[in-house]
């Protein structure tokens, strides 16, 4: 028992060194019910709405506050999005003068809404236009604007140019803009093909084209974009995709993926390195699925497992539908279910919890890779390692090595989370890793 206590104390010390915590929960239930989360800012402001028409913002200091509504009796359309500094929000709100819902902007400091119109004065299904995305600085809104009852185009709005029709490269077919990069030069969304199939599209400096895979085939709807415009995320059948201007298209795969178990990518960090999304059974409720976070080095990781690997208590919440990730990649918000099966909106803040990849990023001369790992764990820039030990998350030593030259074999470990501690010239280093 004494040995076990000493090991547990040692692991706790390591975890504190790495800014991991086993007691301070960083997953917050921000609303009970079916909230459609649209975005989350770097400073922790979450924007969302309900199908009933309520428009809301949340942050830790002010809690959940209703800031607007749809009053014409039609269901809410589009997304409610927030600027990266949390000062500007956009959503679809009813214009009291016309009775139609339209792209509108909200000044958080002044608590005021301004309707921004559409492509036509009156619309259909209660809407003239709808918000779907916002530039990080909050100055440009993108979305959809009706032309007729059966036709709508992608639009963008800013103070200088007003509402601009982005058009359609297929005559008579609809398009929609879902996201815009930081400089406003690249917009992504979807375009209906002549057959009516909805495919991914991008507008580069105002010129529209389809997004294609590495074989030149059109891919599914695009939903997000990195700040520089070089990385785009979207949905295909059955796997989500990450498209990059240099490396081409990569699918985010799942072992159970099929026609009856599909996924989608819903958010991307500003630098394009972190992507969130979901997988769920066809026809199942949206929040009942399996949320994930993906990186090029680590692949897809179940979002709940990711949180636990950082030492974050999930408090019975299953994060089945992550819908938004902040520009810095450290805050995630979406929908899920609690331990009682109730639908909830959640907010996950990983700011104080550094994963191994974050640690290596801060000190790129030293580290371990890959993480998660299947067989061999490599050391980077450490020199001759005199001793290495691996502990499980309850403080038990499960593997020990003498002198190590560059790598260790962890293939015999069971799947799960571990802490590696090793010594170089008497100085101890510690990293957390995931064995998959």
From TrEMBL:
Residues 368-434 form the Secretion system C-terminal sorting domain. The keyword Signal applies. The keyword Signal applies. Keywords: Plasmid, Signal. It holds the Pfam family Por_Secre_tail. It comes from the Bacteria. Transmembrane segments: none annotated. Residues 1-25 form the signal peptide. NCBIfam families: Por_Secre_tail. This is T9SS type A sorting domain-containing protein. It comes from Chryseobacterium panacisoli.
